[in-house]
Please model this.
Amino acid sequence: MMAAICTHLDQILVRAPEEVAGCEECLKVGGQWVHLRVCRSCGQVGCCDSSPGQHASRHAAATGHPIVSSLEPGEDWSFCYVDEVAFVVESR
Model:
């Protein structure tokens, strides 16, 4: 069995922020989020697909930015929407 590989690692251009206020789009409209994700191409902070707004995946679909990383405490995983694979980035 072959492991799935992300083919978009070259598009990781920004580090995950240490502190954030919340989902940028939810904050604008007074929405709520469950978990936060950061776009690794541009740094946009959005909410996960369990959140009503699903802003992280909407951002990825609108921009073509493939990789998000979890901003949840104790989590160090990233996900590539294009390759549909989760992985750990050595340097956040």
